[in-house]
Structure formats: C-alpha cells, structure tokens
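Summary of Year 1 activities. Much of the first year was spent building the evaluation harness for sequence design. The harness presents a backbone, in tokenized form, and records the residue chosen at every position. We chose the following record to illustrate the format because it has been used consistently in internal testing since the harness was completed.
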C-alpha cells in the first residue's frame, strides 16, 4: 500500500468533504470521452491525491484530496478515467452482493497502475455499512453517518495493512484476489495480460491454477459476471450501449453478439 494512502487512512481529519446524489454539484455538460455507468452495487470513491472530474447523477463535481463520493444503487456516474487525467490516487470501495472490497488506483509519472492493491473486508463490515447507508438516507445527521462509515473503512484498512506486512499469500488467496478483481471491474480490463500483471503469476500457470481451483476457465468466469450484470441492467431498461461499455466490450455491436450467444 502506498505511503500516501497509509497517511490518509490514518489521519482522522483527512476525509472531510462528503457527497452523494442528493448534493447539488454543478451543471454538467456532456464531455467527449466521458462514459456513464450504473449498476446494482454500491460504491464509494475516496480521493487521496490529485484532482479529477467526477460526474454523478447528471451533476459535475471536482474530486480533490479529502473528497468522498457515496454512489448508491443504480445512480449514474462516471465510468473509468480519461487519458488526460493524470497524477491522482484514489481508493474505491465496492459493496458487491455480500462482499466488500477496496481497490487502489494510482497514476503517477504518466504510468497508470490501476488496481495495484486489492483488499477484501470481513462480511460483517459489509452488513454494517449497508445498514448505516440506509439509516443515512432519512437522517438529518447525514454528515455524521458519512464520516462514521469512512472511519470504519479506514480503520479496517489500517488493520489489513498491518497484518499483510507479516503474511504471505497462498495460491488459493491469489486466485481469490483474481476473482475479486474480475468482479469489481465487471470483466473490464481482465485480459490474460491484465490478470498476469495483477497477480504476478505467469499467464499459463495462472490459467491452470484458476481452472483447478474454481472449475472454470478465466473466460467462463468473466462471462458469468458479465451475464449477471447484463441481466440486471437490461431489466432496468438500460441501453445496450451503456451496458457494452460498462462490461468492457469494444462496441454495442460486440455486446449484442455476445448477448446473442450467451443469454
């Protein structure tokens, strides 16, 4: 974990500016290259360093150090980063069907490192955060709930950092991390080259180990994740174009061909 992230999560005063879809933001004018996604999973974006644009529920926000964005179920928000967005460090918290993850994105010196670190939190924290989120919606003390949720996450990240210093990962844990990586990215950026870099394993060894542990090939697992997300989105009448880009397809036509074969 980067020292800058460690400093941020250990400083109780660092994250102080909290936003969700109910906050006013600024009027947003569609910008070339900006894509929007929405899904059933909740997410939290924590800005550690750098400045980038963020779009949520049709409104524009400036993502600066100390800013936190709470993205609720099916709230439209910006998908991925633009090539010109450089020199930033973000923590993404993913609440995915009884699972809770943190992924770290860092772009420094022009070299994009997306999701270099991935943390899996206890299921108890997932349940507690969801409970707090629901309570926050109808509370006049929304700011207190937001701050409390971030303090819980930061505390757990500190504990994870401490324990990881003295632990080595088994093959089973590496494959579980690869599965988690695929899930939080909905199959995007999950080519064998991406997974080889993420896991640190030779691609051929990784493919054999993945099949032996899960019973699926990597592609079969990616398709399972994509199918679940696509079914949810299609039931919400979300356009095939939006779904295609969210799942990492090169075009709506490529998604349509995949859907015809798989669904």
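For this record, the design step produced the sequence shown next.
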């Amino acid at each position: 974990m980067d020292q800058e992230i460690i400093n941020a999560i250990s400083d109780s005063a660092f994250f102080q500016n909290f936003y969700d879809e109910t906050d006013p933001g600024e009027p947003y004018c569609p910008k070339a290259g900006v894509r929007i996604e929405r899904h059933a999973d909740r997410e939290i974006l924590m800005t550690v360093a750098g400045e980038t644009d963020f779009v949520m529920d049709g409104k524009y926000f400036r993502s600066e150090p100390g800013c936190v964005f709470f993205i609720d179920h099916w709230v439209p928000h910006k998908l991925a980063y633009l090539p010109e967005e450089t020199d930033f460090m973000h923590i993404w918290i993913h609440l995915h069907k009884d699972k809770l993850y943190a992924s770290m994105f860092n772009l420094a010196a022009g070299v994009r490192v997306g999701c270099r670190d991935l943390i899996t939190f206890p299921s108890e924290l997932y349940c507690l955060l969801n409970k707090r989120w629901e309570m926050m919606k109808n509370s006049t003390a929304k700011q207190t709930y937001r701050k409390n949720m971030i303090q819980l996450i930061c505390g757990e990240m500190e504990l994870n950092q401490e324990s990881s210093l003295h632990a080595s990962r088994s093959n089973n844990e590496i494959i579980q991390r690869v599965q988690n990586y695929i899930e939080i990215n909905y199959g995007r950026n999950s080519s064998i080259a991406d997974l080889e870099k993420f896991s640190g394993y030779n691609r051929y060894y990784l493919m054999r180990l993945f099949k032996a542990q899960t019973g699926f090939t990597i592609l079969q697992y990616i398709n399972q994740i994509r199918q679940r997300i696509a079914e949810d989105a299609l039931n919400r009448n979300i356009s095939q174009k939006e779904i295609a880009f969210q799942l990492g397809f090169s075009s709506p036509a490529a998604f349509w061909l995949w859907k015809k074969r798989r669904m």
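The first strand starts at residue 17 and ends at 19. Quantitative recovery figures across the full test set are reported in Table 2.
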